[in-house]
Known about the structure:
The protein is of the alpha+beta class. It is 62% helix and 16% strand. The protein has 7 helices and 6 strands; from the N terminus they run αααβααββαβαββ. Helix 1 packs antiparallel against helix 2. The longest helix is centred in the first third of the chain and has 34 residues, at 38-71. The radius of gyration is 25 Å and the shape is elongated. The relative contact order is 0.12. Mean pLDDT is 83; it is low at 1-9.
Amino acid sequence: MVKRSRSTLTHTSYKLRSFLFVIGYFISLILLQGITNYWLRTAGVIFIAAGTMLVIYRLAYDRRRLLELATLDELTGLGNFKAYKERIRCESQRALRKQKPLTLILIDLDRFKNYNDTFGHRAGNELLHSTGQIFRDAVRTMDGVYRFGGDEFAFVLPETNYEEASQIAQRVRHSFETLPNRGRVTLSMGMAIYRDEPIEEFFDRVDHLLYTVKANGGNCCLVESRKHKLG
């Protein structure tokens, strides 16, 4: 609820700034017409031009921030579900075009609800924030990491086969285990490579693997092609 209010306020502020800029620009032009002195008129033109450039720069910056807010999970600093959908769509098309593997890893935090119940939601939020940092630092710059809300995360790994993805999964788990504030929370993972299929079916395949891991106690990674557990 708080996040939605902040985004709405930012968007309203952006539209108001744009409106005020247009009004101010036309008022400046009207006032400029009344100046007869050549040098004052020239100075006025320079002043308006400089002001216009500054305002345009500020509006462009605000627009970039709005786009970031629309695709960013505020708590963890990772991409949100909207950002994931756009990335997986683009990467699936690129994988088919280049004939390169695209691996998806879905992650769920084991016993996170118990963690919240025991230590409180503030501690839970701090753990999620730390998890976001750990996940982001554990992958390559070409990879995408996203939070769907709650304690569910996704790794989009372009041009990555099972061996490479398994190394990333192991690195993520080992990095997570170094968190001093994680308590008894562990990671469950499901991993699969994209086929020429609807994105929803790809997600469901990986989600089923994750569900299987959770149903069997969690704390491991189930890889589809090998039917093998890592860890």
